């Protein structure tokens, strides 16, 4: 009986030793796993800290770059605004200079027309002084100034048809003697009387304005209108182009004198003869 108790105790001791040994091994394994887990946590914390530091550094760099971009945009906007103001001022200055130059050109053209008129008058006066026959012409073969207002003789004597190749210049005369002096030396001319002035167009380098009434492919019909208008005292003529014949009235040194004449005759029998009003007429340079 005692031997059995001893064996049982020995077995229990062996079992206890085995259990203790297994427990020690399990504790060691668990401790190792816990240590590995702690190292992994530490490594993860280190990685997170590095990432946090990197993100902070990257954010700071991005903020600096954004600030630089914003400053650059502000500078560019300021430069663009300055350039816009400069261009506007430059355009305004150039526009003013162009308008001034246009006015100077218009004044020069007006002065040139006036000078041509004065030269024509001087030449006419010289011709009158040097030729007795010219002085006597108003009494014999030429109409007086008072007669010219009601007589279309210088109109009917002008060329009814004109070629588009003829370049005309127009001068202003104040007397019929001056007109006669001019037209006596040329074969092609047109004369328009307005408010005591005579506008004389003849071949030469210069500018001539007229009022185009209509155009037609039938030159004989246009010529018939020319004759009808001249019979009514209107200085009409036609210019033959390649495929059309155009009906004109009057010759003038400037656009405004032509336009004023068109307005003055728009309510006369011109409309009834040609069958059209001023809204369809065209003031332009000829030929």
| Strands side by side in the biggest sheet | 1-6-7-5-8
Tell me roughly what share of residues is in helical segments: 55-70%
Q: Kindly state the number of beta strands.
A: 8
First and last CA, distance: 158 Å
- Give the radius of gyration: 54 Å
Question: Mean pLDDT, as a whole number?
Answer: 80
Shape: rod-shaped
Notes on the protein architecture:
With 287 residues, this protein is of the alpha+beta class. It contains 8 helices and 8 strands; from the N terminus they run H-H-H-H-E-E-H-E-E-E-H-E-E-H-H-E. It has helices at residues 2-130, 132-140, 145-148, 153-156, 176-183, 219-231, 255-265, 270-274; strands spanning 161-163, 168-173, 190-194, 197-203, 209-216, 236-240, 245-252, 282-285. The strands form 2 sheets. It has a 5-stranded mixed beta sheet with strand order 1-6-7-5-8, covered by helices on one side. It has a 3-stranded antiparallel beta sheet with strand order 2-4-3. Strand 3 (190-194) and strand 4 (197-203) form a beta hairpin. Helix 1 crosses helix 5 (176-183). The longest helix is centred in the first third of the chain and has 129 residues, at 2-130. It is rod-shaped. The model is unreliable at 130-152 (pLDDT under 50).
């Amino acid at each position: 009986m005692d031997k059995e108790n001893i064996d049982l105790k020995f077995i229990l001791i062996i079992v206890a030793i085995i259990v203790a040994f297994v427990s020690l091994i399990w504790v060691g394994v668990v401790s190792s796993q816990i240590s590995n887990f702690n190292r992994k946590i530490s490594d993860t914390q280190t990685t997170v800290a590095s990432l946090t530091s990197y993100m902070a550094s990257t954010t700071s760099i991005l903020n600096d770059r954004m600030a630089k971009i914003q400053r650059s945009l502000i500078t560019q906007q300021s430069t663009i605004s300055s350039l816009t103001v400069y261009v506007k001022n430059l355009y305004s200055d150039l526009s003013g200079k162009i308008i001034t130059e246009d006015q100077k050109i218009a004044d020069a053209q007006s002065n040139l027309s006036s000078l041509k008129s004065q030269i024509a008058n001087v030449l006419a006066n010289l011709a009158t002084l040097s030729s007795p026959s010219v002085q006597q012409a108003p009494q014999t073969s030429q109409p007086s100034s008072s007669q010219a207002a009601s007589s279309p003789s210088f109109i009917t004597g002008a060329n009814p048809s004109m070629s588009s190749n003829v370049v005309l210049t127009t001068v202003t005369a104040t007397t019929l003697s001056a007109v006669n002096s001019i037209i006596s030396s040329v074969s092609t001319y047109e004369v328009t009387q307005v408010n005591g002035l005579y506008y004389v167009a003849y071949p030469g380098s210069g500018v001539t304005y007229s009022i185009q009434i209509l155009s037609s492919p039938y030159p004989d019909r246009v010529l018939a209108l020319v004759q009808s208008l001249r019979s009514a005292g209107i200085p009409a003529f036609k210019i033959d182009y390649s495929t059309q014949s155009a009906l004109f009235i009057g010759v003038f040194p400037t656009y405004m004198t032509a336009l004023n004449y068109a307005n003055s005759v728009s309510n006369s029998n011109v409309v009834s003869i040609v069958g059209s009003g001023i809204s369809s007429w065209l003031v332009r340079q000829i030929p």
